[in-house]
Amino acid sequence: MKVLVTGVAGFIGNAVALRLLERGDAVVGVDNLNDYYDVSLKEARLKRLDPFQNFTFLRGSIAERVFMEDAFTLSKPKRVVHLAAQAGVRYSLVNPQAYVSANLIGFANVLECCRRFNIDHLVYASSSSVYGANTTVPFSVDQNVDHPVSFYAATKRSNELMAHTYAHLFGLPATGLRFFTVYGPWGRPDMALSLFTRKILAGEAIEVFHHGNHRRDFTYIDDIVDGVVLTMDHVAQPNQRWESDNPDPATSAAPWRIYNIGSNNPINLLRYIEIIEDALGVKAKKEFLPIQPGDVPETFANVDSLIADVSYAPATAVETGVRRFIEWYRSFYDV
Known about the structure:
By secondary structure, the protein is an alpha/beta fold. It has helices at residues 11-22, 39-47, 65-75, 96-116, 151-170, 192-202, 221-233, 269-280, 304-310, 318-332, and strands at residues 2-6, 26-31, 55-59, 79-82, 121-127, 174-179, 182-183, 205-208, 215-216, 219-220, 256-261, 267-268, 285-288. It is globular, with a radius of gyration of 19 Å.
């Protein structure tokens, strides 16, 4: 099967592409290699895919309509895994236009190309951030998510609604995955695990927001990849029992689905820091700060529907995942 993966130089996109190539699929990867964070890390991720003859890389932006049309024309994919996006809650407070370009215009281009080229199944990245002001945990796909607290979250919720219209109007099977705090080797340097590791090893104080009272459903990258690939293979179908007067927010009369993808096992931020300290053998200096605008105090994924539909089974303990990250970090950065 030929699969087009957007964001192929990104953390999740690269890992998904590698898994697909290892199982024998042909992958066409799209990425613009922007400088939101260290480009050399993105280039190093791409080198992991070089040994595969069934991998093709196309450099360009999903926000460029002509480029995307050319990419689909050249690759003729059967399925699309769309993971390219402008990431980060906090950055959306200072540069919202980047999110409009990548997450709204770019996603519209992906949808239109999927429609025109008769794609069998579109799987795309949403985010746990869409739960916003919700306080009932664990977060369930059956909950209302119409009160985002960051512009990033608003763009991700918009993606879910945009995908639904294409599923309804054109019969495009589309599945959105709400990712919960992904971590592991090759992770983004702006994420907590990388930031904490770098500063602890440098003897600098780490910033602990919300005075350490955050709880996060940290999900290891291998578990995430398992869920993405299983979902891609399980093409979204209409819910024949869907009722307009009692609508299920996670399904539709159209071939459209929404799933949470997390570990279903949140831990306190201070405990997470302890695990990092243990793996490094170094105690952290901490600067306790209030919660930042756009942040949510807790994330906790109910993944029952993903387990039921595709046999998703997150299995990596956070202690194991952090240790693997630290081993990779020391090797990659020669620390």
